From TrEMBL:
Gene Ontology MF terms: phosphorelay response regulator activity; transcription cis-regulatory region binding
Functional summary from the UniProt entry: May play the central regulatory role in sporulation. It may be an element of the effector pathway responsible for the activation of sporulation genes in response to nutritional stress. Spo0A may act in concert with spo0H (a sigma factor) to control the expression of some genes that are critical to the sporulation process.
Span of domain OmpR/PhoB-type: 126-223
SUPFAM superfamilies reported for this sequence: CheY-like
CDD domains referenced in this protein's UniProt entry, alphabetically: REC_OmpR_NsrR-like (cd18159), trans_reg_C (cd00383)
Name of protein: Stage 0 sporulation protein A homolog
DNA-binding region: 126-223
Organism of this sequence: Hungatella effluvii
PROSITE patterns, A to Z: OMPR_PHOB (PS51755), RESPONSE_REGULATORY (PS50110)
GO terms classed as biological process: regulation of DNA-templated transcription
Sites of 4-aspartylphosphate modification: D52
CC annotations in GO: cytosol; protein-DNA complex
Keywords: DNA-binding, Phosphoprotein, Transcription, Transcription regulation
Source species, domain of life: Bacteria
């Protein structure tokens, strides 16, 4: 089932679009907090985004640009701001299509279907893990936080992925080492310490001080 994220500040329009898409068999969700669109995008991992332009806090072009730092997921703009300048801005920020309001729901659905068909006949799913405003990109082993993008080594990525998947739970050092052994890395206790320290330094540089907490005698944890 394809997942579609709706970024719309008009609750009536958002709910109408959501219900219509659900009737067509899509998993459609409206963004709840328009201050934190990127976090909800990362948590939901949609296959397509329907984006209004005129939004509170930050406009749709801003959020499209932020999404493009993480993902190539298709973005279709739905907006009454359909003058040439807004259309050009939307496309230049990474939008894939533009539908002017008011629109026919069946026309919108046809465009959504066509975009999904073109995109996912040739591309795989884009994987993201989000926690506390930090977004880990599974496809390219990078972490993004507050517009800072961090390149991770193979072991740093695997350690952080495990901890973010288990956020809120203490992960033992033995469990981390076992996860690395299951791939192609042999890591002893000292090597793990070095890798975690290097990872923490990179996280500090991205504004994520104390993102990884040491639980003495137990292991590591992301709160």
């Amino acid at each position: 089932m394809y997942k579609i994220l709706i970024v719309e500040d008009d609750e009536v329009i958002g709910r109408t679009v959501q219900n219509h898409l659900q009737e067509w068999g899509y998993e459609a969700v409206c963004v709840k907090d328009l201050k934190h669109v990127l976090a909800e995008f990362a948590a939901f991992e949609p296959h397509l985004v329907l984006m209004d332009i005129l939004l509170p806090y930050f406009n749709g072009c801003h959020w499209c640009g932020e999404i493009r730092k993480l993902s190539n997921v298709p973005v279709i703009f739905l907006s009454s701001a359909s003058d040439n300048m807004n259309i050009i801005m939307a496309v230049s920020m990474g939008g894939d299509d533009f539908i002017a309001k008011p629109f026919d729901l069946n026309v919108m659905t046809a465009k959504v279907q066509a975009m999904l068909r073109r995109t996912y006949d040739f591309a795989g799913k884009h994987h993201l893990i989000e926690h506390g405003g930090a977004v880990l990109n599974i496809n390219d082993a990078t972490l993004t936080h507050q517009e800072m993008k961090v390149e991770l080594t193979k072991n740093e990525f695997r350690i952080l992925k495990l901890l973010m998947e288990q956020a809120g739970r203490t992960v033992s050092r033995e469990e981390v080492m076992t996860r690395l052994w299951e791939t192609d890395s042999y890591v002893d206790d000292n090597t793990l310490t070095v890798n975690v320290n290097r990872l923490r330094k990179k996280l500090d540089g991205a504004g994520l001080a104390d993102f990884i907490v040491t639980k003495k005698g137990m292991g590591y944890m992301i709160r």
